[in-house]
Fold each of these.
Amino acid sequence: MKLEPLPSPIYYRGPISFPNIKLYSMARTEEKKQRQHGMGRHLVLFPCPLEGHLNPMLHLASVLHSEGFSITIIHTHFNSPDPSNYPNFNFKPISDGLQDEEATRTDLMAFISDINVNCKVPFQDCLVRLLLENPQDQIACIISDALMHFTQAIANNMKLPRIILRTSSATSFVTCAAFPLLRQKGYLPIQDPQSEVMVSELPPLRVKDLPNIGTDKLDNLYQLVANMINETKTSRGVISNSFDYLEQMAFAKIRQDFSIPFFPIGPLHKYSSGHSSSLLNHDHSSMAWLDKQAPSSVIYVSFGSLAVMEKTELVEMAWGLANSDQPFLWVIRPGSVHGSEWVELPQGFEEKTRGKGCVVKWAPQKEVLAHPAVGGFWTHCGWNSTVESVCEGVPMLCWPCFGDQRVNARFVTHVWRVGLHIENGLNRRLIENAIKRLMVEMEGEELRKRIMVLKENADCCLRKGGSSYESLHSLIDCILSL
Ligand code: UDP
């Protein structure tokens, strides 16, 4: 079966409520009457140009702008954000030295390393130009993605303070910081025979849950992680897209080991319902399809912006979904199957799932997860997806692929216990069973109850007196004191 090309976008105009946005805004408006906060002081932000990194940085920019700071976003040409979505920000593109072919290759580690080398001079030149253009307008601080570690040296050159934004979980950050120890103890590099061994220093992680980026150039990976950690230690603070209730242990460890301020102010996407910063166009027809489904009946399937699967895995997924007999909304991103830009689903799949399934190339995920018809999320456990699912109280089926996703999946299934793990290869019977356990059996009900507690805590942390609300306050005070 060949999938139809994307329909022309039908924009969803239905009501979507974001209750904690309202709570946050009410408390904040009151407070702003009393304080002037940023008072127009200038912040320069530099995101890592990947979907899961760009979105939280732009959310952070919006939060800080609403607190009275003026915002300049310096960004690469590759995956550049759309300035028309953010008329209040000043956007400055810089050369990234990436050829198209080079930029889109699947060697993520080389991609990140190249940006860290290629952007040094353009980034510094851009800062110099900004200061020359407006000599009165001092830059209060640079805020850059933790992976963009080269910005610390530039900040030092320019005598500007730098704060980092960590867009993934605090736990995976702690794990990365432990790499030297994990290597010394022989957990890393990961060897197949010991992949099930528990890492006693980082419970409940097993060796196979440790962050991994699928490269044979391990020395380069270790160097990249070391640079990220070292340049974080020399920064003036860490902002985290997480919240207290979720990762208390990791927060305590960071506060103990990094002698710099730590500001967990997440979930960042909940501060405003503003423009989507998505690099791909959302297919809003999925929302109209969801409107016709029964409450909590649909399993939403999406593996983020980078994960790539084998054709055989896609086929097993298709039959697992079809045989589960559960309605599904499935995102198949172009290029997400090895070796082909687009895919053919197996013969007979369409007939078997007619009326039960909707397949799109990219969905408005946050709205999808907030839709009452969605009862489960089969996810790769990218940090944004994990937090978005928690915030909407949707239990998860975890199929982590690389990077920090395995750490996040282990926490979903064994710490918060709000999801099930699909492990040891994909096959249709295993998938069918897992979907039924999540969507219709008692086990799924238990997961749903537990994730509702996390959701309530996510709501609370943004209210006045809540942990993220207070952390944001401290962050603003910190920036103003720099
Ligand atoms: N996303 C989306 N539509 C989709 C799939 C994903 O808008 O169909 C968004 C999702 O809401 C999240 C981001 O893409 O904010 C993916 O980030 P995540 O950290 O989960 O994974 P990554 O793409 O970095 O692997």
Amino acid sequence: MERTLVLVKPDAVQRGLVGEILSRLERTGLKLVAMKMLRMDRGMAERHYAVHRDQPFFEGLVQFIISGPLIAAIYEGPNAVEVMRSVMGVTDPTRADPGTIRADLAQDTRHNLVHGSDSVENAEMEISLFFNPEEVVG
Ligand code: IDP
Ligand code: MG
């Protein structure tokens, strides 16, 4: 069964949008199998976003993702990776389809409220960064 890692980012926590976003994620029908609240440190952020380390937005992204607590969760089900990314919308909220989380609620490309793994392989790596196997309870 396919699994994906979701982050409800610090902007969502600060803006009081956690419930609204989790409600939308739940409506996908995917099964919630793990969840925690934490504040990422720089090392963890640099590992999670390692693929972007040469991008001009990398330092700003790291600063943002460590700026406050976030929610990490694992959802499971058919096409979990694609299903979650489709309800989130594309990275830039001005380009995201209406009805997606980012189009409806996000402020800008950096402060875009949510993260969803972009492949099954990356999902497995990201899940192992955030969760021990015994924390997956679904
Ligand atoms: P994704 O979250 O839609 O998969 P990625 O390209 O993987 O988007 O980028 C990771 C995160 O980095 C984005 O969600 C966003 O917070 C931030 N980001 C991406 N591109 C830019 C940019 O051009 N300016 C500022 N932040 C960006
Ligand atoms: Mg990505």
Amino acid sequence: MDNNNQSMLHIGILSSPGIGHIIPSLLLANRLAGVHNVKLTVFVITTADSPTERQLLESSDLTSRLNNVGIPPVDISALLDANTKPVAQLCLLVRAALPGVRAALTKQCRRLDALVVDFFCTEALPMADELNLPKFVYVPTNARFTALTVYCPVLDREIVGQYVEQEKGLEIPGCKPVRPEDVVDPMLDRNDVQYREYLRLGVGFGMADGILMNTWEDIDPVTLKALRENEPLSKVVGKPVYAIGPLTRNIEERDGDDGTMIMQWLHKQPRESVLYVSFGSGGTLSAEQITELAWGLELSEQRFIWVVRPPSMRGSDDAFFTTGQGADGTPNYLPEGFNTRTQNQGLVVPMWAEQALILRHPSTGGFLSHCGCNSTLESIKNGVPIIAWPLYSEQRQNATLLTEEVGVAIRPMKLPTKGIVTREEVKTLVKIMLQSKKGKEMRERVVKLKMSSEKAISIGGSSYNSMCEVLNAIEKRRDLKICTQI
Ligand code: UDP
């Protein structure tokens, strides 16, 4: 099953822009290169003005053994207006970049044996056909997201009115019904352009020869079984689905960077005593919510590391603005004197921290997270339970899976996007996580899940074997091509 003894395959991976998309594509590439001895060329559609993306693509831990091809950034500003939502923007950006993708692929095609595209790039799949390459879609998140996305065109025909206004959960054959409030962002408003784009993405999955997902059998066996066996869902999917994860980032601690100050502080804290608070690469909260969260952390009297960002106007995933700070360095969007009062309790880190290092540290005992797909897996892989604070995208679905089925998370009573989570509730959640029997039980469950995830990706594990199946399929196709050429 392993590719080690056969002539080296060469796979192209096409990634859409955004840290949350580029990281999983690079992780997949590294996995294929490092464990399965495959040669990789990664084509990355970048955003013109993103220093974080540039930095990531230059970071040696994820890119050193890959051949990276940057697709020239495109300017889509003329296509956007104030109402263009993130998924629509991303789809427009990918579409505008397609000529660049075509040029790059054509240049490399003689060397490639297959193309894998992330799920925002399914419009590039016909190019693989033109180049006679087997083609796969990579979903960096879980089976539930895949089921909802491929089945949404059916729901579109069956359901009248807005999904969020339905009284019952949305039925997907063989799967747990999706609570109306948990639908992914583009399903929130069926009249918006981004809903049409999302439907198109779901249909696009069907063009691939297979669907790869960054998940593993044990975390959601019910949905995986349904995707494979339960008609009509399995018929709609129509292609093999492969659980090949969880693939997460593993960074080594370096001397002399900002991380060191955080690490030094963490080294001094008791085991499993620190709550790490972060909302992904772009998540922000409203000014009022930041205030409540700050007070909640302070009142909990528990240790914390909080990656803070200035408030957004909409409490969503964008709209940063710059602000000043008080005499003690407290940014003026935090309660006055917060830094002074919490100086022995926690760390406030502006904008960005090396999350992979923090989650791996033994002093970290909980993660207040927006439940982005990477953050969720990183938390599980490090055995850290979660306070689920979903904001956008598919995070509400992730939060439900983690809280209600896997039992490794707790969450506020109401969705943070539907109202303010008060300081009292924050304080209670933090104390449950770090101080209670329930917190301890969650930690035990997440450690078991971590072990099952490690088993899945180890040699001979379910995810390892799934990846081998994909590689075998690619190899068969290559051999056939060679035969017909002879
Ligand atoms: N991340 C990080 N430091 C931060 C914020 C995010 O290292 O301060 C990394 C995090 O480890 C994860 C990725 O950025 O790998 C965020 O991806 P995720 O899917 O969790 O959320 P998104 O940014 O897509 O909303």
Amino acid sequence: MALIVQKYGGSSVADAASVQRVAARIVATKQAGHDVCVVVSAMGDTTDELLDLAQQVTADPPSREMDILLTAGERISMSLLAMAIDGLGVEARSFTGQQAGVITDAAYGQARIIDVSPSRITATLADGQVAIVAGFQGVNTEANDVTTLGRGGSDTTAVALAAALGADVCEIYSDVDGVFTADPRIVPSARRLGQIGYDVMLEMAASGAKVLMPRCVEYARRFGVPVHVRSSFSDLDGTLVTKEDPMEEPIIAGVAHDRSQAKITLVDVPDVPGKAARIFKVVADAGVNVDMIVQNVSASGTGRTDVSFTLPAADGDAATAALAAVRAEIGYARLAYDDTIGKLSLVGAGMKSNPGVSARLFHALSDAGINIEMISTSEIRLSVVTGAGDLDAAVRAVHTAFDLDSDQDEAVVYGGTGR
Ligand code: ADP
Ligand code: ASP
Ligand code: MG
């Protein structure tokens, strides 16, 4: 008998029939003799719909109210799931994040879990019942307010609960059969990875592979929680995310993409010490996280240079306004903003010891006629920015160039709208 945490994403509980289908899977696990704690996301695209609704009411909704609104999505799915399990003759109790003891800091919309005290969950499991927990939410005990953990946050709820409960495994059920060498929505010939190490998975997730939220992978690595990514629509093997096994680690694990970034270029910045420090202080003070940065050598004799960087498009207004306010002080000529960009990242543990990876990637993009706007690297990642319209073709070209295409059946996407 094991203690299993199972997380079901929104696409797995999109409607009443899906809730019943998931309930049957949970009951089967329970009847196999295991203790089961379930974390569930809001049904289908509920969270996006609530966000849209708030925008229709006011352009700038207060973040405290936004979090109260968004936590409603998971309350609906958790109670319906408990009812459906009850309907199958197995006792189940649902709990909000607060009731489950998920304590966070006060950062509305992107709160971090600082503690988990799941005494009610432990008691529920001890009573032989299934515990259902609303994902994506917690409570800040200082303000006594509910908080949300950022998009995709139910993954993190599940891993945090698995760590706190000492679960044997955390199973993340989604609408694909595991972690693939690329998003199966873009690359139907993507290959499923049987196993992937925490570090490489974290890099994939942070580069846009939204099958797992980056913070959930960080959490799993810190507490050594084995994460099993699977489909709730099939019984296939899935992907085990666990401590790296150097013998199993491929040179290239996969290609991730990200459409959520934008690019700012400051044109004609005086090329003197201190300008970059000032620019990025202003951006940081606006609460914006910068990703890639490129500064050209100044054209001979002009003493001026261009500075470009990428940032989440959602922070575009904040960063542009902050930089516009210091234009005279910094002395740049013009600010160009572009949110029609895409970022492609090639990720793999063996990259650092294999020369020629970048040349092969650039060659693949040039063969496909795709222009590269920016480049950045880490030990196990190589990222390039392209035009948004070129991104899908770029992902496919690079996937093929690194021999990642599978000759098996196509990767299946069972549900979800991809939103
Ligand atoms: P859930 O609603 O279950 O949380 P998500 O939509 O958050 O599901 O994540 C699953 C989706 O992640 C898949 O439908 C797929 O389009 C996308 N995805 C992106 N990159 C990958 C990858 N490398 N492997 C598998 N899925 C990926
Ligand atoms: N419902 C939340 C979201 O859509 C959390 C999650 O699905 O993990 O981001
Ligand atoms: Mg998700």
